[in-house]
Design a protein that fits this description.
globular, Cyt_c-like_dom_sf, 8 helices, iron, Cytochrome Bc1 Complex, Chain D, domain 2, C-type cytochrome, heme, Cyt_c-like_dom, binds heme C, 2 domains
Amino acid sequence: MKITKPLNLGLAALAGLAFACGGGEKSAETTTPEVSETTPAAPAEEISLEEKYKDDPIYIKGLEKLKTSDCMSCHMVERKIVGPSYADVAAKYESTDENITMLAEKVIAGGVGVWGEVPMPPHPNVTLEDAKDMVAYVLLLKK
Ligand code: HEC
């Protein structure tokens, strides 16, 4: 019996505080709803795929090898030029060993007909290992 009395007083005080806070928050909420709703969405969409994956070891290794060949003259990450964008290729294929090998062989042998009538020329000087690293980089670039 002796314990309940101070406890009740404490609860009453807490309830009073909560009520005071609640009232305060409500009036603040009505004045600033627009600002907090528009700000979080914007930066997420502006992050480029390069920015998103730049620290991934697959990205770093693949990009280094891509730069030693002519891939960049026909492919861009997020825009179609002569060939499809890497982002479009990544959206089309799961990043499995099977797909990486299949596409690596296609990079070496050249190919046509999957993305249109423009052919990709063969790259006989690229080794299968290097081509796989390049393709792994391409398939990493998912949005
Ligand atoms: C002369 C332009 C050109 C160059 C250089 C080039 N590509 Fe391509 N690439 C293309 C075209 C065009 C296609 C679409 C081929 C098709 O429709 O089958 C393509 C398709 C691809 C595909 C998707 C293949 C598929 O079957 O979906 C990958 C992956 C690719 N290229 C990677 C590379 C890599 C890696 C390099 C550098 C070693 C490279 N490309 C160099 C023009 C090029």
